[in-house]
């Protein structure tokens, strides 16, 4: 009989819960809920009308000169006035071809648009202390030195570089002096930092 009492108590509890849920729905006073039908969109703002005035030329501005682009034919045919001026200039005033070689070269760029750096590879050592001694000697002479560790077929090697420089000609000029002073045969290589 205990199970019968338990079932009645559970049934009564379920009916009370249903009554609590359905009571407000069945006996509410407000049958039609009121919806706010006013627009929530703000009114259109009022814009001021602007008149565009005709541009006025300033008083103290001079006339702009219009230049015509030169065609390729104009460059090929020098005028007689230019020829006369050219013949009057002395031969010493002409630029020397050897002077162009002393000017620094324009740096070249990689496919990614980065500049190409150059360095002198002086030596490749298997022992760190030998590479450090050469580095200290180069630093004492005022050279910019870089060392890189590279894995080769013979094992790990430490390469000693002077540089890097953007201008290859600078390294070409100091190469003979470094080779003679440190008794090496340096290589001019394209430098890539790691």
TrEMBL record:
PROSITE patterns cross-referenced by the UniProt entry: SPOR
Gene Ontology cellular component terms for the protein in this record: cell division site; cell septum
Domain SPOR: 112-191
Gene Ontology biological process terms from the UniProt entry: cytokinetic process
Positions of the UniProt region annotated as Disordered: 70-106
A single GO molecular function term of this UniProt record: peptidoglycan binding
A Pfam family annotated for this UniProt entry: SPOR
Name used for this protein in its record: SPOR domain-containing protein
Species this chain originates from: Dasania phycosphaerae
Lineage: Bacteria, Pseudomonadati, Pseudomonadota, Gammaproteobacteria, Cellvibrionales
């Amino acid at each position: 009989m205990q199970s019968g009492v338990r079932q009645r108590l559970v049934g009564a509890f379920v009916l009370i819960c249903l009554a609590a849920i359905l009571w407000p729905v069945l006996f509410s006073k407000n049958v039609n809920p009121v919806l706010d039908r006013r627009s929530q969109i703000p009114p259109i703002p009022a814009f001021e009308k602007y008149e565009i005035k005709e541009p006025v030329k300033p008083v103290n501005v001079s006339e702009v000169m219009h230049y015509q682009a030169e065609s390729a034919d104009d460059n090929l045919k020098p005028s007689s006035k230019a020829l006369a001026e050219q013949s009057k200039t002395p031969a010493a005033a002409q630029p020397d071809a050897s002077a162009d070689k002393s000017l620094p070269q324009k740096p070249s760029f990689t496919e990614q648009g980065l500049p190409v750096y150059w360095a002198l590879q002086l030596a490749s050592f298997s022992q760190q202390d030998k590479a450090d001694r050469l580095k200290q000697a180069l630093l004492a002479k005022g050279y910019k030195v870089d060392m890189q560790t590279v894995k080769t077929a013979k094992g790990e090697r430490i390469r000693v570089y002077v540089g890097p420089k953007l201008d290859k000609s600078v390294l070409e000029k100091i190469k003979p002096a470094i080779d003679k002073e440190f008794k090496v045969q340096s290589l001019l290589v394209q430098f890539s930092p790691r």
